[in-house]
Amino acid sequence: MRVLSQGLGVALLCLALLALIVIAQRGIIAQSIAAYGGSCPCEYSTDVAGNQCGGRSAWSRSGGAEPLCYHSDITMERLRRAPH
Fold first, then answer.
1. Residue 65 falls inside a structural domain
2. d(CA 79, CA 32)
3. Containing domain of residue 71, as a range?
4. 52 φ/ψ angles, rounded to the nearest 5 degrees
5. 43, 69 in Cβ contact below 8 A?
6. On the CB side of 54, how many CA atoms lie within 13 Å of its CA?
7. Which pLDDT score is estimated for 69?
8. What's the CA gap between 32 and 41, in Å, rounded?
9. Dist. CA 8–CA 54, nearest whole Å
10. Which residue of 13, 28, 41, 62 has the smallest Cβ count within 10 Å?
11. Model confidence, pTM
12. Residue 49 falls within a domain, yes or no?
């Protein structure tokens, strides 16, 4: 029973750490999008007319601004530099 309890504790700790990582990533993404000057930082963004940006987004185009739009855009190094 003790081993099961320890295993559950480890699992809960892992879930808590994962939740903290996701929250940090969301904050980094929000900051990156807010810092972008245009109306189409990400594929899922909408332009001023309300149309989805898709391939017109800064994220989709090479060169220029490189906003962070997805969790997969954030490296562990970037996460380490995030304010705590």
1. yes
2. 13
3. 21-81
4. -65, 135
5. yes
6. 4
7. 97
8. 9
9. 42
10. 62
11. 0.82
12. yes
